[in-house]
Design a protein that fits this description.
4-stranded antiparallel β-sheet, Bacterial Protein-export protein SecB
């Protein structure tokens, strides 16, 4: 499999809910779901990330949802489970700085401390290799 080429990205959804007062304490938790979808005819794939940040203790107090899709091309698509794993890891590593920067800047603009996501770690459970 050849090295992948980043072609661009799109924000499919960005929603934000803030029902907090100045002295409200929050304990934020973040979840990242990342998947790779292949277009075998055009030797392209999309890295699809859904990121949710919300208050762990109070539903409806704070919630940020961010759906980001990165588009990539490569000389040949992965054929083996190990090639798929490497592609998945590389795509996530290329897109994560974009997720982080967008969410950090947006949170600062709406008057809350900048949100910094923890590093997204790709594990074998995140990767579908049997298709």
């Amino acid at each position: 499999m050849e090295r992948l080429h980043f072609q661009g990205s799109t924000i499919d959804d960005f929603s934000f809910q803030k029902n907090i007062k100045k002295d409200t304490g929050m304990r934020l938790e973040a979840s990242v779901k990342f998947a790779v979808r292949y277009n075998t005819e055009q030797k392209q794939f999309a890295g699809d990330a859904l990121i949710t940040v919300q208050d762990a203790g109070h539903e409806g107090l704070f919630r940020l949802k961010f759906h980001h899709i990165g588009l990539f091309a490569c000389e040949s698509l992965p054929e083996t489970p190990e090639e798929k794993r490497k592609l998945h890891i590389e795509a996530a590593a290329m897109l994560q700085p974009l997720w982080n920067q967008t969410i950090t800047l947006f949170s600062a603009m709406v008057g809350i401390p900048p949100i910094k996501l923890p590093p997204y770690r790709v594990t074998d459970e995140n990767i579908r290799t049997g298709e």
